[in-house]
Design goal:
Two copies of one chain form a homodimer.
Chain A (H helix, E strand, L loop, with lengths): L2 H8 L10 H6 L10 H14 L9 E8 L15 H10 L4 H8 L2 E9 L10 E3 L17 H18 L6 E7 L4 H12 L3 H4 L8 H18 L6 H8 L2 H15 L4 E3 L2 H13 L7 E3 L8 H8 L15 H19 L3 H4 L8
Parallel strand pairs in A: 1-2, 1-4, 2-3, 4-5, 5-6
Helix pairs in contact in A: 1-11, 3-14, 5-14, 6-10, 6-11, 7-9, 7-10, 7-12, 11-12, 12-13
């Protein structure tokens, strides 16, 4: 069995609080029942996924998956392709937004080179899992071979498996790759038979003319490559990217390990969506962080049946939304494990409901 | 001049980034312009209020203002009145949700007895500023005298002024008081001439019958007391509460000290709204944390022109929403002070916008 097959096989179906035991446990806390809203739901999800009522979330890891995209040459991004590698260096120098937000919530950032153009010197926070030097231009042919698509997924699986030995209580996804909203929009359009127009947004901030061009590029990519909507690996190979495959692999590996997965924004959701198409049971392990400004994101979220935790008008990626959400999940578990009960606090219960 | 008058006089009008200098400063960061959304706006607010481009937010203080309400005897709450004092003890034992969330974001909680029924033993985290032993039943007459209304505001001012000597970089508001959604709904109905029906919700979780009774109680309170809508102190005296006055005072004192104020949910917003009616300039110093489930909250927010940062279906009060929001404001200032610029990070700027 390949690493990919074995990982997928390991994923067990779970239900969120199937017998209401976690909710019952929570209703003993000295608060009006349900008054902590989604923080209660988060704790219920976390406990359901891990099976642990007493977990202190300590090891928080954000994987920022990086890859280049030759479709950048079609003028679909506001930034030049060189920015992918430049930002990887910025991550390693801890100067990027994801570094600061991860540090704020006590998470470590692992950057994975899944297939960027340049070679980056080895560094403690970097894993080199290059599947290629940039996914090919999807407007002209497939992004990668089917073999490389599996390799990109395995890059994510390996990253998780290596890092889990240092402890992982929660995983956050992240991405870096100039032009990668283009394959992400193409993925959802392909998998769900949607008009690219409905799921294509401005990415890093392109103007109307560039947006129209981007939509045309995605249409062309779908026409030329004819990805098979019922085969998520074919879709990844034809119109995806290395870092998107790695995010899918990360989700599969984390689910197999019963580790809650906090999914960042648009590109991360494309990866998570592929993982869920490969193995629907992955869905239950996923916590959606924020609603991105990027147009297609809410379509992904709806298809996955996920309601994001917050909407701060963000559209940066990197894992920035995941970082903030990890802080919320940790807070929810602190409440769950530390709040005093009515009995312990000597607080009277409701008498008029 | 009284402490109240002096505090109000000290509040200077501010504008949020009037000349765009803070935005310009931010646009040098190695991210697509505006891609951190409301985190950028938060930093811009914080810098505008404090005038400091280099602030590390260290001293975070949540003031949980407690007071009792004899209107509880009308059956407007799901919980017995004794819970107010019981919860104050729970706060001091650090077993409540606000303690855990404040600790999570590195904030300290100061509990202020603004007028609860019982006497609580002195304790390091407690300030005793009792204006009375519970506001009177507003369905039968005024909650308090005008003199006591000013005293309750001064309880908040004094609390801030005492605590500022230990350092305060940001203030969070919080409340505890069984039945206090009733005066809060009455306050907004009175100040804005609204039908109590539109601004009255289920508080700690009352049923339909109790809700109808609560609405009738508020109607009666407004009929009997005839609060003067153009006199916020009269409204506070007639249909308010001691902790609500103290929250108003806290907002006035913080604004006078150019300290950003993070306002919690429904009851806190009632206090902040009174402060803003007393001195409209206070509005610019206020950051709204979350959208509460409590029905009238969005009405308050709209009147104040504030968009909450998040909506997690919370309705607990105590300062729990403020705690989470303080974490976001701190994160925004870490981004503002620590993110690498395009130049420093060696990242290429946009070339296709």
């Amino acid at each position: 069995m390949t690493l990919f097959e074995e990982t997928v096989k390991n994923i067990k179906p779970i239900e969120i609080d199937p017998d209401g035991k976690i909710r019952d446990y929570m209703n003993k806390f000295a608060i009006p029942a349900g008054s902590l809203g989604r923080l209660e739901e988060l704790a219920i999800s976390y406990v359901s996924i891990t099976g642990d009522f007493n977990k202190a979330i300590k090891n928080k890891v954000i994987f920022t998956m990086a890859g280049d995209h030759d479709v950048a040459e079609e003028g679909v991004s506001a930034f030049p392709q060189s920015v992918t590698g430049e930002m990887v260096k910025n991550f390693l120098n801890k100067g990027a937004a994801v570094n600061i937000l991860a540090d704020h919530v006590g998470a470590r950032v692992i950057v994975v080179d899944c297939g960027i153009k340049p070679d980056i010197n080895s560094s403690p926070g970097l894993k080199i899992k290059k599947v290629g030097r940039g996914a090919k231009n999807i407007a002209k042919g497939p992004a990668m071979s089917r073999e490389d698509a599996i390799k990109s997924i395995e890059a994510g699986i390996e990253s998780f498996n290596e890092e889990v030995t240092n402890g992982i209580d929660i995983v956050g996804t992240g991405d870096m790759g100039i032009a990668n909203t283009t394959p992400s929009s193409a993925i959802i359009a392909a998998l769900d038979g949607l008009d690219p127009e409905v799921v294509t947004g401005r990415g890093t901030g392109i103007n109307d003319k560039a947006l129209q061009n981007k939509i045309n590029v995605i249409k062309k990519a779908l026409e030329i490559n004819k990805p098979n909507p019922s085969d998520p690996i074919d879709v990844l190979a034809k119109v995806g990217g290395f870092e998107i495959g790695a995010i899918a692999g990360l989700c599969l590996a984390a689910a197999g390990n019963r580790t809650p997965i906090v999914v960042d924004g648009f590109i991360s959701t494309a990866g998570a969506y592929i993982a869920r198409k490969i193995k629907p049971e992955v869905g239950a392990y996923i916590i959606s962080s924020h609603k991105s400004v990027e147009k297609g994101h809410s379509v992904f979220l709806e298809k996955m049946g996920k309601k994001p935790l917050f909407d701060l008008n963000m559209r940066l990626g990197e894992g920035t939304g995941a970082a903030i959400a990890i802080g919320l999940v940790e807070a929810s578990m602190k409440l769950f494990t530390q709040m005093a009960s009515f009995a312990k606090a000597g607080v009277s219960e409701a008498d008029n409901v």
